[in-house]
Amino acid sequence: MRESEWSDGAEGSEWSEAGRGQPYGDRFAGLGIRIGAGLIDGLIQVAVLLPYLFTIDLDDAETVSTFDPVAIMIALGSVAVRGWLVAVYGGTPGKLLVGLKVTRSDGLTTPPGSEPAFKRAAVDLVGLVPGLGLLLSFGVGMMSLYYVATDSERRSVYDRVGGTRVVHKQYL
User: Fold this and answer.
1) Does the pLDDT of residue 172 top 80, yes or no?
2) Out of 9, 95, 111, 154, which residue is the most buried by the measure of CB atoms under 10 Å away?
3) SS (H, E, C) the chain
């Protein structure tokens, strides 16, 4: 068995950090490829929301600073769609296009199912907290970048909340 594979030893089962010299570094998705997947997802989301974005009057401070019911529905819809995509297909379009899959915490079971998928998607709802949403969203993003860059299993905040891992499809 290669060092980067799952090891089920007598002392318990755990992932090995070895294997960084392999084609994709290791079985867990690193920072660069996850940022790329996120950019693809962001472009898709902007394309879908473009008609609504043209209706927002950014010069009107009251419109920008208050809760827009349509914006809340868009945020909830986005969480629902991303949760469903991960629950059913094992990833968002961006992750699937770059060869990634979201798994349960075992690193093997994909798609992870509804509960883990919707938990990880629900993290983005912190953006709806009045007055603090933008700051909280930024904090979640920065913490996720830090965790993916430093954690041996490359787990982001989303993975920690959902009990998931993001792996290269070739390892499944």
Assistant:
1) no
2) 95
3) CCCCCCEEECCEEECCCCCCCECCECCECCHHHHHHHHHHHHHHHHHHHHHHHCCCCCCCHHHHHCCCHHHHHHHHHHHHHHHHHHHHHCCCHHHHHCCEEEEECCCCCCCCCHHHHHHHHHHHHHHHCCCCHHHHHHHHHHHHHHHHHHCCCCCCHHHHHHCEEEEEHHHC
